Please model this.
Amino acid sequence: MTKDNSTLPLAMVDLTTQYSRIQSEIDEALQAVLDSAHFIRGPIVGEFECSLAGYLDVPFVHGVANGTDALQVALMALDVGPGDEVVTSPFTFIATAEAAALLGARAVFADIEPDTFNMDPKRIEERITERTKAIVPVHLFGQPANMEPIMEIASRHGVPVVEDNAQSVGARYQGQTAGSIGDIGTLSFFPSKNLGAYGDGGAVLTRSQPLYERMRMIASHGSRKKYYNEIVGVNSRLDAMQAAILKVKLNHLDDFIARRVRAADLYDTLLKDTPGITRPVRAEYATHVFHQYTIRVSSDLEGGRDGLAAFLKSRQIPHAVYYPVGLHQLPVFSDGEHAVPPGELPQTEAAAAEVISLPMHTELTAAQQELVAEAIAEFARGVQIPEAHG
Ligand SMILES: Cc1ncc(COP(=O)(O)O)c(C=O)c1O
Model:
């Protein structure tokens, strides 16, 4: 059996095969860091920041320790603090809202669009108060949120925008790179991300020199000059080993994205006639870089999403539910005076009950995808309620 026809290993993310394709470049870059012994903010970190700034077409990029820190540093630079509110999506990873909460601010959730899963611009304005200090759209699953109306609302209210772009590096919104449209963009280099390190990493990006300088200072214990600390900051650094890996991988990012999009196209074809399945919707205003390939499973299919998950598990087909609950329903955000009553964010609650993500990475083979799609079709055929077909 040739490699391309292989169905093994079938994983949600296959970093091993990807590494084997670029091993000589990665090993050489890591050896250079070892030889230099510049482990903390050595020259390679600056080189990577410059390359990334060029790729994203932004003047300023600063590496930090992870994507959660990137959000926290961004919000600190905007002076978000106790009593403030940050309007964001309830359908995202906890880090987005956690960064606000860590600063004593409150995450205020605006519901999502059912097709893109991104924050619905029409639901933002009703969440804005005089305490709103930032709007944080999340570019979920590889697809930018609809930034034009978001920026219009933000500018009308004089509120800055931080784009949580942990999941969509390289995607474009109306031709502009995701993360470069708002006041600040944040990135995560978690290994499974489209541009993933071999450990933790993150970055903040901006077009504003004052914000850039402030974020650098905050991420460096609040100091511009060593031992002359001006404000209370944090210690958040992108390390040299990760920067070396990321610099190599950045050269491959367009190819990585093309491979993901090809895999998404094939899933689209393979799943197009499967009843009860809604394939990802691609908005006309953006490119989609398919960090995840996330489908919706209709409750008309007996067992619904959870039934499909159990069926895939029985076939040893990897899958994941991003996200099984809205952030407003998590214990951390669901009690206290600001608890969101059930039904207030209906699109988020519906999505949380219906979504399932399929294996998606740069190394997927057509045979692997056929295996996944056949299992989903079998589930849809086998346990479907007859009257669902009329
Ligand atoms: C949308 C979103 N925001 C923030 C983060 C946090 O990134 P990190 O894990 O690098 O801290 C992630 C990572 O999973 C994410 O998916």
Observations:
- The mean pLDDT is 95.
- The first strand starts at residue 60 and ends at 64.
